Amino acid sequence: MSGSTVLMEKWPVLGRHEQAAAWLTVWTDLGRAPRTIDAYGRGLAEYLLMSEREGVDPVAANRSHIALYVRELSSRPHRRGANVISIDSGVGLANATIQQRLVPVRLFYDFLMEEGLRDSNPVGRGRYTPGRRNGGQQRGLVPRLTKLPWIPGEQQWLSVLEVAKHEPVRNRLMLALAYDAALRREELCSLRTDDVDPAHRTLRIRAETTKNRLERVVPYSAPTGVLLSDYLAHRARISRARGAMFLSESRRNHAQPLSLWTWSKVVRKLALASGVERFSTHTTRHLCLTDLARMGWELHAIALFAGHRHTDSTLQYIHLSGRDLADKLARGMDHIHAWRIQMLTAPAGATAEVSR
């Protein structure tokens, strides 16, 4: 059963719109990652459902119809209600989520234009226009807010570690590797036994498990190596088969590969028990990359370590660390301090000369 067929069963509205089904099939046949196809299917399905409620043919929709969809995304109650972990809790979707929801809609209209069914795309995107102010960049349909990732303070991190030390060895190893190697959730949960090189203390992050299909090799620390040795001995009592590194120990899925959702539940439990509710599966990656920036790693070295294709994503960790600003402030204050001291210690007749 193809990925697009599965999505049409999950979202029947996709099957009711011939062009939507055709578009999704094209992306599936092009070999896009299952999670990407799932996100595209969900985003387009939500848009089509709104179109049906409004009695609008999506093929003929205009800019005002897209604006109505954006308003709905911005004001809809969150499914978790007051329990959602965000600044403006429980109301609307985050700016980044709205941007993600618009991507499949924009791509869908690009497809309709290529098929000759439309002359224009109602979902605007930022475009470069020579002669415009601000470098010629025109704002897209929804202003893009760029926020620095959240990282825990020292006391918050210690609170998480205090709870984590009582976890089984598998969970402690996963947390250690997630920080040590700045791993994304899928990269961590997809590790296989042959991805680990204990002799050199390195991990191979396979291209098919990464966000941008870039394979990389990353190191891990000696203390994490001790945890790894302990876990491998423990894992051998569950299964001696090669394959997934991290295995479920529940009755229902005993010895099966640990799922992304199970790891998310483990981390969520840690967050609640430690009182650091914003702690998530991605926090360790943010913290590691920020720490590397604080230690003075160069931008390109951090990008290579993180598996970023472009350094734009890496810059946020440099900014978050405050390294550049701190260096500039220190240099500026040294100069100002030296000037003031010189003014105070100079002979009375030389004060006017120094001030020039």
Which tags fit this structure?
single chain; 356 residues; hpI Integrase, Chain A; 3 strands; CB; DNA recombination; Tyrosine_recombinase_XerCD
Concise synopsis of the structure shown:
Residues 14-113 form the Core-binding (CB) domain. By secondary structure, the chain is an all-alpha fold.
Report what the structure shows.
By secondary structure, the protein is mostly helical. The protein folds into three domains: 3-136, no CATH class; 154-321, Intergrase catalytic core (hpI Integrase, Chain A); 324-355. It has helices at residues 3-10, 12-15, 18-29, 34-54, 63-75, 95-114, 154-164, 169-180, 185-189, 222-238, 260-274, 283-294, 299-306, 312-321, 323-345, 351-355, and strands at 196-197, 202-205, 216-219. A three-stranded antiparallel β-sheet has the order 1-2-3, with no helix packed on it. The protein has 16 helices and three strands.
